């Protein structure tokens, strides 16, 4: 019961790594607050976990909505001990595609802006909203979802990589700024993980992912959830400003 009586807010908690994290935290005694834009899936996840879980519909890119949601959660539970900034989207595409000297395709500005607004600004919005509450209560934990591509880069992911690298930078800044208030801030960088989005890919793509991972398999959402659990717990009480790779040993591009 490493998170007994802790109130843990998990954005993007309706499915995938977010859902696995919510389940794992509840197993360890936490009161889990799932925040997600997908209301139907979010409510199903909260119901499946049971009385320890509740759901709030939230678009993390909507700054005003984030502030109102966090205030409501604090009013209801009295405190927020852990924030997991897990919400994220993908809109992959190469920077440009040129054929026979002619530009035939490029990453759409709308796709760049959307990924930045959710994956990067959303993390900023949620952390800035929760930080004053954590300061007043004397401490807390913020955990940010980065990715191995934020460390190594990846073909066709200019927007996504920019956000995941940016999250690492913000993690290190906030660890410095908030440490004296007893708030620890860390990031987790998953490798290829068997979420619904990944497992829907063609088998030849999945085989390539496994082949590039020294441990020879995709990560399971629970593998990432266990990393979040460790960093959220008192076992990690002297760890802040770090990026924990959970990737089966992969190095992108090799």
Give the oligomeric state.
Answer: single chain
Principal-axis shape equals globular
| Mean pLDDT over the residues | 95
In CATH terms, the superfamily is: NAD(P)-binding Rossmann-like Domain
Estimated helix fraction = 40-55%
Radius of gyration over alpha carbons? 18 Å
* Alpha-carbon distance between the two ends: 40 Å
Main beta-sheet strand count, sense and barrel state:
7 strands, parallel
Range of strand content? 15-25%
The number of E-state strands comes to 9
Number of helices: 9
As residue ranges, the low-confidence spans are: none
Descriptive key words:
about 250 residues, alpha/beta, Rossmann fold, seven-stranded parallel sheet, two-stranded antiparallel sheet, about 45% helix
Please tell me about this protein's structure.
The structure is a single chain. By secondary structure, this protein is α/β, with parallel strands linked by helices. The chain has a single domain (7-246), classed as 3-Layer(aba) Sandwich (Rossmann fold). It has nine helices and nine strands. A seven-stranded parallel beta sheet has the order 3-2-1-4-7-8-9, with helices on both faces. The mean pLDDT is 95.
In short:
This protein is of the alpha/beta class and 254 residues long. 46% of the residues lie in helices and 19% in strands. It has one domain: Rossmann fold (3-Layer(aba) Sandwich).
């Amino acid at each position: 019961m490493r998170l007994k009586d802790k109130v843990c807010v998990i954005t993007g908690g309706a499915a995938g790594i977010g859902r696995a994290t919510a389940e794992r935290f509840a197993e360890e005694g936490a009161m889990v607050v799932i925040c997600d834009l997908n209301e139907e899936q979010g409510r199903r996840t909260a119901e499946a976990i049971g009385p320890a879980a509740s759901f709030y519909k939230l678009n993390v890119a909507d700054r005003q909505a984030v502030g109102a949601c966090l205030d409501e959660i604090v009013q209801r539970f009295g405190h927020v001990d852990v924030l997991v900034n897990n919400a994220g989207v993908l809109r992959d595409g190469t920077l440009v595609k040129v054929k026979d000297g002619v530009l035939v395709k490029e990453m759409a500005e709308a796709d760049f802006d959307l990924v930045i607004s959710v994956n990067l600004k959303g993390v900023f919005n949620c952390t800035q909203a929760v930080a004053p509450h954590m300061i007043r209560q004397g401490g807390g934990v913020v955990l940010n979802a980065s990715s191995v591509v934020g460390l190594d880069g990846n073909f066709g992911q200019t927007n996504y990589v920019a956000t995941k690298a940016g999250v690492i930078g913000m993690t290190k800044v906030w660890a410095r700024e908030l440490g004296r208030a007893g708030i620890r801030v860390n990031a987790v960088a998953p490798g290829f993980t068997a979420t619904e989005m990944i497992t829907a890919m063609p088998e030849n793509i999945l085989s390539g992912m496994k082949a590039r991972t020294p441990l020879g398999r995709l990560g399971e959402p629970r593998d990432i959830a266990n990393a979040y659990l460790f960093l959220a717990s008192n076992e990690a009480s002297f760890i802040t400003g770090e990026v924990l790779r959970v990737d089966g040993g992969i190095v992108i591009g090799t």
